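Onboarding guide, step 5: your first structure request.
Type a short instruction followed by the sequence, for example:

Predict the 3D structure of this protein.
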Amino acid sequence: MSLGRADLVAALERVAAAMERDFAELNELDGQLGDGDLGVTMTRGMRAVMELKDTLSEDLGMALLACAQAFTKSSGSSYGTLMATGLVAAAKTLKGRTDVAPDELAGLIADARDKMQARGKAELGGKTVLDSLDALAEALAEEPKPAAAKRAVAQALEDFRDKPATVGRARIFAEKSQGMDDPGMLAMERIITAAAE
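The system replies with structure tokens like these:
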């Protein structure tokens, strides 16, 4: 079964609701290792996306590009920029298409991960959102189903929880970060869990 515009809009609505719900939690966790504004970034970004959901193109590439642009305009944060970068990567691949097969998602996620990695100049294994996307791409390549996606991002959080952060501002608090979830990884877990419902 292929996924189209209606599926995209429904997933975006679920993600927007999850970000509103988790606003305070994301800010609080981010505040322990960074600026404390991740909840703000994600709610602003998703509110901007929701403002144009009714006008999103049937062309999935154009729809994702519009989402990326809305995210960029609403937030100047590094996480917002990385999110937009990942969306643009997927948009380029899907330009001119009105549907996407589930078994194509792993490739889209892997490409988004690579573009985000190049933009953020971070390495895999650094306890960042890249590690969540890496686990997600690997899981979807084996089993392109929502349950596999949710398991992958939850497992990535667990696998990296006790490791020190080695990238970004969180690396300053490397010791403190051990035993804590990375805010970006937690945000991605919530995004994927909501989108995959």
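Each response can be followed by summary notes, for example: Residues 15 and 191 are 5 Å apart (CA to CA).
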